[in-house]
């Protein structure tokens, strides 16, 4: 829908300007922004990392610290100017009539409280429920956002959940009080495509039931095309374009909007192309495409793989009872085997909780495998002592999913990037700043930012810092765990091109863990699909994308949002059943799997989802 003159907006933002005090000077990050939000409407706010999208949301919620921020203008919600309300009235309104889903769940959830209590708390505070009723509603909300084994998860703590499951808990908390306006700041960034589709459907359903309006902040233009009624495009704190979704996609007026849409990876665009290809980068001023320098991304023929994983098993004990006896086991990774050659990219895809990240961590022995063999560069990783493991980790680096959680908040980003270089004795303290500056430039950051702390960067910028740190030791293999999931489309294209350029120059191998199938298609040579800890299909990227053989792989492909409003999917029934759980009894024996060879290195398992 689009707003007409007869609609009374539920939220009006007028001449909003937000500034922060930096080194004694006020720096404006949102400048005279104006927009309206109609009842039941979904407004998508898009733009590059650092464009002011999240600051706009925090300004509406009045969550910016008064000591070093300044908000001017008017934010009128249901006839009240939120900027004029006393703090106690804002506290009553937040989470009740206006709710927000934040980008990074680990920084929003309380690490010392069970997730069930964190969902029950706003229900007791805002809706006056008693504890027992609130707990029942919390369980229902966890089931609606498809937390596996929801009843058993109520007493879990945030650190016990995967990144995707933590985000689902945040969504459950935000929707608990059925708000009139929901501000969703990258709510599906950490989620795989199937759960993302479920969450988008859940938000649509609640809009219909409650007349809820949504401000959807995202960098995924496929989601914009799927869910948004109107789109607001921001650049450097300014609104550059606002239009209904169909018009914006078909006839973008601003050069920057054209550049943004041109950078969107589209599933199927690599059909018939054997090797990976970098993205064409669009100049935001001229709108003209810039072709990256040509590189050979074919994998050299070598008899010996750089990494060979055979029958890898990683399980976690589940303890219960007064004495903490082992009562069950989580079969996080079960009988996983694959090879990875130098200069090759193997993408590992699947739903949140399927074992992708645990597989990556097991390779570096960040979690200890239960059994199986990991051969890296002709040495057994599982047989290494502490010194050998430290040396091995110099040539295998990992980029983690949550950049904020993997950066020390008390160290400047320059120190964070320099630390591994100094620890491994690869440079002197006098040479380190120059190396840090060069690394920051390579990932699109200004070297002058090296003196800042992690909290002073946007989510996308923090991820680029982690990529720079991973490159510091000049590794042979990088395990990239959702390395570009937090990046907007244009920066994502640049970082993917950077990774591919480094691969061509240095012969880097990548284990690319991702839920973004369009990026997987662009960057990978081969794809392995995981389900409940097992690989169910593995083969060349073009075969997996265009000719998926396993039912679960086909389900993944069908769930990918298409960045075209004319292909918007119809309403689907919301699935509220629990996902199958990898938790097994102590006497469980995994069944023997049989594989079908489809030729050209394409194999499919007989595991039925």
List key phrases describing it.
eight-stranded mixed beta sheet, disordered N terminus, alpha/beta, 25 strands, 609 residues, six-stranded mixed beta sheet, 20 helices
The helix-and-strand class reads alpha/beta
Strand content: 15-25%
* Overall average pLDDT: 86
Please give the share of residues in helix: 25-40%
Biggest beta sheet attributes? 8 strands, mixed
Write the layout of secondary structure elements.
Blueprint: E1 11-22, E2 25-37, E3 42-47, H1 53-61, E4 69-77, E5 80-81, H2 87-93, E6 98-101, H3 105-108, H4 115-127, H5 131-144, H6 150-153, H7 163-175, E7 181-185, H8 193-210, E8 213-217, H9 221-227, E9 230-235, E10 238-244, H10 245-250, H11 255-262, E11 281-282, E12 289-290, E13 307-320, E14 325-340, E15 345-349, H12 356-363, E16 371-376, E17 379-380, H13 386-395, E18 396-399, H14 413-423, H15 432-442, H16 459-471, E19 477-481, H17 489-506, E20 509-513, H18 517-523, E21 526-531, E22 534-540, H19 541-546, H20 551-559, E23 583-584, E24 595-597, E25 603-605
Parallel strand pairs: 3-8, 3-9, 6-7, 7-8, 15-20, 15-21, 18-19, 19-20
Antiparallel strand pairs: 1-2, 1-4, 4-5, 9-10, 11-12, 13-14, 13-16, 14-23, 16-17, 21-22, 22-25, 24-25
Protein described:
- The chain is α/β, with parallel strands linked by helices.
- It has an eight-stranded mixed β-sheet with strand order 18-19-20-15-21-22-25-24, sandwiched between helices. It has a six-stranded mixed β-sheet with strand order 6-7-8-3-9-10, with helices on both faces.
- Strand 24 (595-597) and strand 25 form a beta hairpin.
- Helix 4 (115-127) runs parallel beside helix 7 (163-175), helix 5 (131-144) crosses helix 7 (163-175) and helix 14 (413-423) packs across helix 15 (432-442).
- The longest helix is centred in the first third of the chain and has 18 residues, at 193-210.
- It starts with 10 loop residues before the first strand and ends with a strand.
